[in-house]
Amino acid sequence: MRIAIGSDHAGYALKEEIKRYLEAAWDGQEPLDVEDVGCFSERSVDYPDYALTVARKVATGEVDRGILICGTGIGMSIAANKVKNVRAALVHDLFSAEATRKHNDSNILTMGGRIIGPDLAKAIVKTWLSTPFEGGRHARRLDKIADMEDDDSQFSRS
Predict the structure, then answer these.
(1) pLDDT tens digits along 61-71
(2) Would you call 131 exposed, middle or buried from its count of C-beta atoms within 10 A (0-12, 13-18, 19+)?
(3) Is position 56 annotated in a ligand binding site?
(4) 75 is in an annotated binding site
(5) Which terminus of the chain faces fewer neighbouring Cβ atoms within 10 Å, N or C?
């Protein structure tokens, strides 16, 4: 599995922890191919730049999934979800990590570096990466979301 990972300055330290975790033999799993798109220090940057880079890579199939980290995870989630075919989920607990894969087939995980610590973040990543999409009724719902992305009439100006 190929993963793109990115952060802003507030998520930099946690991004580095997660990257090392994924590139090692994490919890008995094979190391993953991780592409770090930045940022590369705690110097202030704009999170939408990194969200867009990861989201485009996921949406085009260049990578299988993405992980984005900012201070709260909120900004990254909002920005990434502007890209068609992206289903970015903000997760800070194990139940949500599992549910967003089973029910929403999320392809980008966002987390807050100022909200959770590295041990919980690693557990979330492990759960998120190892949980398959259930399909079935959930696929029907995702089809409706995809239709919403294609429906420009909702934005028509009168």
Answers:
(1) 999 999 999 99
(2) middle
(3) no
(4) yes
(5) C
> Is residue 34 scored above 90 in pLDDT?
yes
137 HSE (CA, 13 A, CB side): 0
**Tens digit of pLDDT for each residue in 106-130?**
999 999 999 999 999 999 999 999 9
Residues marked as catalytic: 70, 103
Overall pTM > 0.70: yes
Is residue 64 packed enough to be buried (19+ CB in 10 Å), middle (13-18) or exposed (0-12)? Answer: middle
Domains, the chain, in order of start with CATH, read 2-155 (3.40.1400.10)
Strand, helix or coil at 69? strand
What is residue 5's three-state secondary structure? strand
